[in-house]
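Technical annex, item 7. During the second reporting period the consortium partners agreed on a shared format for inverse folding records so that results from different sites could be compared directly. Each record opens with the tokenized structure and is followed by the designed sequence. A conforming record, contributed by the partner at site C, is shown below for reference.
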């Protein structure tokens, strides 16, 4: 969860779950914290918290917000959602379409700033965490990195292993429960788990000669069975696959794109604007079955095409940065 990733974040005095959104909890929590400013992001709209913040005249901002015409807030039955929006001091939006939709229902305290995720992934890419064990595994090979995968994604990826024996594959499943890792290792029995590398690499009985990259050179697949590594893993890749496209929707494509990797994902991507735009620029590719995955992998064996596609993805991310500065200036000058 987000909590597990951020619970030790150094710039925060406290990291905790927000208590359940009830009138009593909201009143007690806001009184206890007594913030000068409150900031929520994207899809976090909490009726009682927002009402209490508004009641106590505490400025409330929502950042990276996005709205679509089919959202219930724009329907006849969306009165409660519209009231929630009325509690907000200012909404920072991702696009002009959202601004037009909100203006139609009388919400005018809005600014089109963009999506702060772009700033975040660029910042992460500028100083990625070095992971020696992954470096050792990758060595000088081309590397296919599959992030936030689900079972259906993994079944397709497994079919590539024999076809591309000179490529290394790193798979970071969306869930790392014992049952998920077990099913993945059963699917790809020859895979190495990251936790096994760490244990082996830290053994006091190993000499420097046995703990170098040769130890991993005969393995083709590495399974990442811990949290918080994915955004740094992409620095070692040449092609990225983003999971979720055969389920409820794809996960974060920007983390891979910012490292200059062409991105592949399944068919359920339409609600993600960046995915649509990356596809239009041939920086990302959607597949609906195994044959299409094999086709795009074949195309991406052309180094010139692969590098151009990846650099196009990187430029797309860089061209959409700046939201954080816009938001900061508005809040700071209020």
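Designed sequence (site C submission):
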């Amino acid at each position: 969860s987000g909590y597990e990733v951020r619970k030790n974040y150094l710039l925060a005095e406290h990291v905790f779950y927000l208590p359940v959104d009830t009138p009593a909890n909201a009143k007690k929590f806001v009184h206890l914290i007594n913030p000068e400013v409150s900031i929520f992001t994207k899809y976090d709209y909490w009726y009682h918290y927002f009402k209490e913040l508004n009641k106590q005249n505490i400025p409330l901002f929502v950042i990276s917000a996005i709205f679509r015409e089919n959202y219930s807030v724009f329907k006849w039955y969306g009165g409660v959602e519209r009231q929630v929006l009325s509690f907000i001091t200012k909404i920072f939006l991702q696009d002009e379409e959202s601004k037009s939709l909100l203006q139609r229902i009388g919400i005018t305290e809005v600014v089109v700033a963009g999506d702060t995720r772009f700033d975040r992934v660029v910042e992460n890419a500028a100083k990625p965490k070095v992971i020696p064990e992954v470096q050792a595994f990758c060595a000088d090979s081309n590397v296919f990195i599959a992030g936030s995968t689900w079972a259906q994604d993994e079944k397709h990826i497994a079919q590539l292993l024999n076809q591309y024996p000179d490529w290394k594959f790193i798979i970071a499943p969306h869930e790392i429960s014992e049952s998920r890792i077990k099913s993945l290792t059963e699917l790809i029995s020859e895979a190495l788990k990251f936790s096994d590398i760490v244990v082996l690499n830290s053994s006091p009985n190993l000499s420097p000669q046995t703990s170098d990259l040769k130890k991993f050179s005969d393995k083709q697949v590495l399974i990442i069975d811990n949290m918080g590594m994915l955004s740094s893993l992409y620095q070692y890749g040449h092609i990225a696959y983003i999971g979720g496209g055969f389920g409820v929707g794809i996960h974060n494509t920007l983390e891979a794109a910012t490292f200059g990797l062409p991105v592949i994902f399944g068919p359920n991507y339409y609600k993600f604007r960046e995915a649509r735009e990356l596809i239009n620029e041939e920086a990302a590719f959607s597949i609906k079955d195994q044959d299409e995955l094999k086709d795009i992998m074949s195309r991406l064996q052309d180094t010139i095409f692969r590098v151009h596609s990846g650099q196009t993805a990187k430029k797309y991310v860089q061209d959409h940065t700046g939201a954080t500065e816009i938001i900061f200036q508005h809040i700071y000058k209020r």
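The domain at 129-319 is CATH 3.40.50.2000 (Rossmann fold). Residues 147 and 172 are 5 Å apart (CA to CA). All partners now use this format for quarterly exchanges.
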